[in-house]
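Changelog entry: the Ribose-5-phosphate isomerase A record was regenerated in this release. Current contents:
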Amino acid sequence: MDKAQQDALKKAAGIEAAKLIENGMIAGLGTGSTVKFLVDELGRRVQEEGLEFTGVTTSRRTQEQAESYGIKIVDIDDVDHIDVTIDGADEVDKNFNGIKGGGAALLWEKIVATNSNKIVWIVDESKVVDTIGKFPLPVEVIPFGAGHVVKEFEAKGYKPVLRLDAEGKEVRTDENNFVVDLHLGRIDHPQELAEDLINTVGVVEHGLFLNMVDKVIVGDPNGPRVMTNSNK
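Regenerated structure tokens:
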């Protein structure tokens, strides 16, 4: 699938998901290429249809995009709940286990998701997999002692790689932390891995989002299709 086709599927999923936002809602707005299309459509609805809602964003990038359309964005601590959060995902399997954090926003994304009544992911069909893990699993670590965390992950066979930018500098998250990507190939026991990672000193958060999502809207060449998590 070329980029233009993929973008068309992402856009269709984003436009479909935008229908979930109604007047007066508090909506969590995720981060990434598919969410960008969602925010464009919400911006259009605000400007053309008079839609009024309050947004909580999972990154500074999304906040800037949303505010450029006149969407009201507030701090997560200024709301007592979030009605629905719409976000992308890097991979999702049939058990509704997902990997997020390709855009290095996993910590804020997880905080917003955890405070949401409903979670919806929008993805193109290439993100739906049988078993998660082919996409490298992002882990947010504090810079102090990060090298030791990487060594610990190496010893466990997690194949860690410190994420660098185009200039060879460490990628920094919105909280100024580092990201270590684990090249696992496949994750057969995500729950155990999640426990191990979050209990590693120096790790702030990991990109495993396990059985958290209520619905996944998949951009499909035949039109968006919805996967509904019956365990939620």
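Residues 82 and 116 are 5 Å apart (CA to CA).
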